[in-house]
Amino acid sequence: MSQPPVTLTTASGIPVADNQNSLSAGPRGPLLLQDFHLIEKLQHFNRERIPERVVHAKGSGAYGTFTVTHDISRHTKARLFSAIGKQTETFVRFSTVGGERGSADTERDPRGFAVRFYTEEGNWDLVGNNTPMFFIKDPIKFPDFVHTQKRCPQTNLKSATMMFDFWSKAPESLHQVTMLFSDRGTPDGYRHMDGFGSHTYSLVNEAGERVYVKWHFKTRQGVKNLAAADAVRLAGEDPDYAQRDLFNAIAAGDFPRWDVKAQIATEDELNAWSARTGWNPFDLTKVWPHGDFPLQAVGTLELNRNPLNYHAEVEQAAFSPANAVPGMGYSPDKMLQGRLFAYHDAQLYRVGTNHQHLPVNAPRCPFHNQQRDGAMAIHSGGAERNYATVEAGGVDPRGMGHGEPPLALHGAAGRYDGRGGEDDYTQAGNLFRLLTDQEKRNLFDNLSGPLSQVSDEIVQRQLGHFDQADPSYGAGVRAALKARGRNIA
């Protein structure tokens, strides 16, 4: 008796729309990096022999639930949003970004804020930070940027010169640098900070209509930050401060919660906004102002269960922003496009070829594919064949991804450098002007510490960016440098 056909999915349980044709720019190509099914197939094939792995940065994690409180089904067909009151199991991992696994939780650093939703259509991973922007806008500079945040190859020490040499030559970084050196650069644990998807993503409804979205997690515990001196003190007294705070709160039944909200806009609305402001809505160094795109309530995230084993469930948790379920999609955000490849590839190296089989990573829904062998092949596929035959027309040829409408492309293929011709200062200045007088003084003092350690050339270059964001910004940092014995004109 023949078996009924099964739905082909990715290893994360997400349905595959077309297993016959790669996603291309026009019928003759070239191919697009966001074709995650293609990338996953090739990556897994290349790693069917056991690779070595690397360790991951320090983090903390917990399980919880996402509950829908407001109807957004007009924007997305994703089933987790199908009814008010619907709950979806989640796993959240917080982390420091630049430090090693043994580093202190209170270091001045962005914080990772990664949320996995175990939906009935596969895993949705929203991999963001506690900041709505980032330092760079093109993934080709990501390895360079991260190297500046790590250790000097000669001294094996963190280097203010490396950091500010990079930032001072990349004015696009000023928005995030301002956030990093403000009080929000040292949050008081993980429960008292907001989270952001940061990138622009998309939603697709049953009619195949696309809108773009930015995700926000607003802490119900209230935003609290550590004074710089307290952050340094805790780094010595209790380097696991944030881990301890999160675990103990959940263990005591004091479950942390976040209100999940979204900024939603049509392509026409974003085009009109871009024409008015000159800002690219898909530029990760920019934000969508709430006055232009108000926050809309969506649901509530609650963390209510601690992992039983840190290594198995937190260290081996492997997220990827490419994990988007039907009704969700990507955008032309260049940094997002790079992360669609880089995150899954990093997990293949770090954890192993079949990391998606591990309990914390496995989808809660059935999954079927032709991936076989390699390290940790917990689900071998049994006697099922390990290939798909060629079928003209595709399995479900409804455009790209999971029935999304085709994404229009504009312009010839090339390498485009907008640096120097784009506005990298207005939003950074707006953020600066939102700070209270005391917060500004803290910002000046936090910046003057590492800047006092670098050359005059780098300091002058960085001060020039502060001046363009707001003259009082540059003046304040100059005064703080002078107080440290560094006179800069």
Give a structural overview:
With 489 residues, the protein is α+β, with helices and mostly antiparallel strands. The protein folds into two domains: 36-135 and 170-357, Catalase HpII,  Chain A, domain 1 (Beta Barrel), CATH 2.40.180.10; 426-483, no CATH class. It has 13 helices and ten strands. The protein has helices at 36-46, 142-149, 160-168, 174-180, 228-237, 241-251, 267-277, 310-315, 334-350, 426-434, 437-451, 456-469, 471-483, and strands spanning 59-68, 87-96, 111-119, 122-129, 195-196, 201-204, 210-219, 257-265, 296-305, 328-329. Strands 1, 2, 3, 4, 5, 6, 7, 8, 9 and 10 form a ten-stranded antiparallel beta sheet that branches. A hairpin with a 5-residue loop joins strand 6 (201-204) and strand 7 (210-219). Helix 1 runs parallel beside helix 9 (334-350) and helix 4 packs parallel to helix 10 (426-434). The longest helix is centred in the C-terminal third of the chain and has 17 residues, at 334-350. The chain is globular. Residues 49-56 have low confidence and may be disordered. It is an enzyme of class 1 (oxidoreductase). GO terms for molecular function: catalase activity; heme binding; metal ion binding. Residues 9-396 form the Catalase core domain. Residues 1-22 are annotated as: Disordered. It catalyses: 2 H2O2 = O2 + 2 H2O.
Write the layout of secondary structure elements.
Elements lengths: L35 H11 L12 E10 L18 E10 L14 E9 L2 E8 L12 H8 L10 H9 L5 H7 L14 E2 L4 E4 L5 E10 L8 H10 L3 H11 L5 E9 L1 H11 L18 E10 L4 H6 L12 E2 L4 H17 L75 H9 L2 H15 L4 H14 L1 H13 L6
Function: Decomposes hydrogen peroxide into water and oxygen; serves to protect cells from the toxic effects of hydrogen peroxide.
Organism: Pseudoduganella namucuonensis
Subunit structure: Homodimer.
